[in-house]
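Researcher: Go.
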Amino acid sequence: MFCPRILWLFKIGTIGSFFLFATGISSQFDFGGGGDDALLECSGSGSFQQQIDQGNAVVVGKIPSGLIDLEISMKSNQDVDIQLTSGAKNVINWEDGVLSSDIEETKVWNGDTITYSGYNGDEINLGNEYVFFRDDTQNAYTMYAFGYQSGYANVTYSWTGRKGCTPSGVPDGSGSGSFSQSILLDDVVTVGDLPAGLTDIYVRLESAVDIDIQLYDEEVDMAIIKWQTGLMKGSNFERLQYEDGVYIEYSGYKGEQRPNSFGNEYVYISGTLPRTLTLKVLGYAAGQAQVTYSWGYYNGVTTSSADGGGGIQNNLKTNLHNIIDGHTELSYNQCWEALQRTDQDESNPDRVTALYSRLSIPKTNRDKGNKGDDVWNREHVWAKSHGDFGTSMGAGTDIHALRVADKTVNSERSSKDFNVGGTPLNKDEPQKDCPTCKETNNTFEPPDVVKGAVARMIFYMAVRYNGDSNSNGLTLNVVDTVGTPYGSDTKDNGAIGKLSTLKAWNAQFPPSDEEYNRNNLIYDIQGNRNPFIDHPEWVDEIFS
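Model: Structure:
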């Protein structure tokens, strides 16, 4: 749902509560009902930060008619005057407004009873002003802030009802949005509230300046994410079980670790929030951050625990397919750069980590037809010959199942199915690079550390590509055999094994921090997630 001037709102089932994100430069009120598909907010509250310009009146926002008991306060360290207009009429203005006193006054204008603090503020600070409307607003207004010095003002507002509005009580189960957030030097800015009841929340901030995300549970006075003192305070990826069924994943305060990427941070919260959380951002320099957010990614998914297990297998698979299909498809050439983000060595931003061998290889040593040690290329974990999809956009470039690999080990794995057993790799170089890898004529066993990841990538592919138009007609299936066919005879209908082994790996080796972080980065790049990383328990529900 869209609200004007890049202001977004997360609605939840509790009437009057919403998640308000606003920018510091182009902030606006949001009273709901901003778009044709938006639910009408009968009551609510919000806050945002407004930039103030010296000698100018900047628009704070539009106020519609019909709001009941509207209260607005503006607080600033600088001298600021509220101005209010309705059409061409100056209703609040120091020079010629209906309300123009230096102290609090109440007047009736055109049916509205309006209380204004006066231009000297609340008698404590010249920048602390307020305006109240008794009963419902009969007129539409525009509110401005005139600055005597440049700076910022915190704007808070609330209303108890709306004339003719009947609460629907219907929550938006999922949604997304984006806006630009002002960043202040050595100061903390509130980005917004994450209301209780939201599920699977993803928030990403990208800035050219170094920033730190902060996350608070103010109800219990807890800093969840905060450098030095928070429950999560590390420089690298962290995952925390915060409540029963609620997990928080944080990029770490160094963002994506690379130079010029310390301003790229994210937080992902899986499960249903039991309490409202507040997201803030600390700036180490002044600037702007682009904020993108979404919630309810798995909204509508029905599992066996919800319906007793009757006929759930196909329903769950179809639900998940419909959620993860239609992602942004990369070209095969674009995958080189994408993999340098998703498979970056956590301890060295100039290197990538190979999937099977776990070797750390310089990013510059990508395969250009050259031979020798420490060359990496792109490994299709679901071998591209099983379905004969090659490197075409879609399955051939889906980075959920495309990984950095040591070139020699990738060559030894070839198109083999996955299973346990065999002998060490035949050739000296791959055997040296991956001493715990094993193979037979038609199977490959990776090291324990990545077996779970391999399984979940395979299961992802089997759900993502089901033969529909968003799969380009490609159907992929996991089977409980090895020696599965490959090549042109399998065009658009690929199979890979071994199902029972892959299910065992998924159960025995749960998702690692590397997988969780990679899943979030791919969500930013492709716009979809691997559901079996977020919910490995779904494997047994679908692949029985």
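Model: Residues 1-27, 33-40, 305-310 have pLDDT under 50 and may be disordered.
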